[in-house]
Amino acid sequence: MEILDINEFLERIQNDKGLLWELLDIFVEDFQQKRTQLHEALQNNDATQVRKLAHALKGSSANISAHQLSGVLLELEKMGKNNTLTGADKLLADMDKKFEALLVRISRLRKELE
Questions:
Q1: Burial (CB count <10 Å: 0-12, 13-18, 19+), residue 106
Q2: pTM above threshold 0.85
């Protein structure tokens, strides 16, 4: 599975390239802010906050068709919901790896769609 299902995403936004870049830029900025908050919530062992942040990020990842990322966030959200954050740091590391891969894909996409 691709880190970003660009065909699905373009279909969802009716092939509007301007909107594509606008939404990706908003996503990246929002993700980075919430990622910091998620890290803090995990450090504070705040399962409720982890659940809320993971839920928000899961939705925005799904909106841009970043399904691998939304899958990891679903797991984090479940952990928060179940009030068990054991192993969440591994998921956070996996999330970061997938986010980095997504950033690489976005920069390649900029060249492809110029």
A1: buried
A2: yes
